[in-house]
Amino acid sequence: MPSFQLPPLSLYIHIPWCIQKCPYCDFNSRALKGNLNEKAYVNALLADLDSELFQLHGRPLQSIFIGGGTPSLLSGQAITDLLDGVQQRIPVPADTEITLEANPGTLEAGRFAHYRTAGVNRLSIGVQSFDAGCLQRLGRIHGPAEAVAAFHAARNAGFERINLDLMFGLPGQDMTLAQHDLQQAIALRPEHISYYQLTLEPGTPFYHAPPALPLDDHLWEMQQQGERLLHNSGYSQYEISAYARPGEPCHHNLNYWIFGDYLGIGAGAHGKSTNPDRSITRRWKPPEPSAYLATAGTEQGLSGQKTLAADEIALEFMMNALRLRQGFPESLYSLRTGHSFATIATPVKQAISEGLLEHHNSRFSPTPLGRRFLNNLLEKFL
Q1: Would you say residue 1 has pLDDT above 70?
Q2: Does residue 313 share a domain with residue 250?
Q3: Is 283 a member of any domain?
Q4: Beta strands in the chain, from DSSP E residues, in sequence order
Q5: Are both 115 and 242 inside the same structural domain?
Q6: Which of 220, 255, 290 is the last residue in one of the domains?
Q7: 83, part of any domain
Q8: Domain presence at residue 265
């Protein structure tokens, strides 16, 4: 077994508000009512971070991701204060990837230059579609022209690393519309494209009143067609729904997928920490913003924590690592979990025998069949 070392450490910061809640979204987000007290929330985030610092164990941050919700509802000054506060508490190397999620609205795009000055060096824009009808059926408040304008505003603000979020399998979408969305995204030449299928998540309006969606066979064809177009346009698929130009993967998300550690601050944020005794702990915060604001940084500001059992660690490792197209080396399992690879040898052999997993050059990776039926593959490790 490789010698033990603590994994890389990232920071996730959650901003829980949106202009309005989309009917497909199951993230911890809610429509903003009234004015947003930015100063109070930033102060709460930093107090929350203070309560997490015991998990550093001397590690710097390798990435920061400000997600939501809609983080671009915050002003440039709020993001400046937030990132300055983080750097006063944790070592943040100069080359640390700092991503902020943004919507294509005019107000948000007007803040991009301020975010860049604040230290954000990667922007993720939630386009979802370039078709006006699809956007309307998704409940999005922007149109195709605003999406294109937001991308150009980001470039003009100095962002050299931009991700565009796109979904397929949308209500009223056919193969032509799905292909057209990707073609428009590719024409903008972003460094990264996230391309994933719309799913109906429990608790969402779409789940309780499902819209008419493309048939399963059409969904698979959309995915395959999209993969080919992205590949032929110079975007390599390195994860199930992530495509990047050479050297441009999202380092923050990669840290999740290789079972790295991350602190989670903000309403409803989750974190994962590996301890020097090799145990792994998950911690999570109150999801309701008012409760979070009232308790951040105190004992009541922690909704719960749990030390993972050995079988839970195995499943969580696989749930992340098997999303990667290249899979993982056998040594990474022991390095990240503290357990011998022998503990999962039986389900691994079974998955290989069923054509869901392959072993090549000392790496285990899902086969095309395994990627299509990833849930079936993961069931082997329950």
Answers
A1: no
A2: no
A3: no
A4: 9-15, 17-18, 30-31, 61-68, 97-102, 122-128, 162-168, 192-197, 236-239, 242-244, 261-266, 270-274, 280-284, 304-307, 328-329, 357-360, 363-366
A5: yes
A6: 255
A7: yes
A8: no
Measured at the CA of 59, the angle between CA 340 and CA 45, to 5 degrees, comes to 115
Sheet of strand 328-329: strand arrangement? 328-329, 363-366, 357-360
Residue 358: domain span: 309-382
Q: Are strands 192-197 and 242-244 parallel, antiparallel or unpaired?
A: antiparallel
- 284 belongs to a structural domain: no
Phi and psi of 182, rounded to 5°?
-65, -40
The answer to whether the beta carbons of residues 99 and 123 sit under 8 Å apart is yes
State how many domains the chain has: 2
Under 8 Å between Cβ of 240 and 232: no
Whole-number Å distance between alpha carbons of 228 and 236: 10
Helix (H) or strand (E) holding 371: helix 368-372
For the question of whether the overall pTM of this predicted structure is more than 0.85, the answer is yes
Using one digit for the tens of pLDDT, what is the confidence trace for 257-276? 999 999 999 999 999 999 99
Contact 137, 171 (CB under 8 A): yes
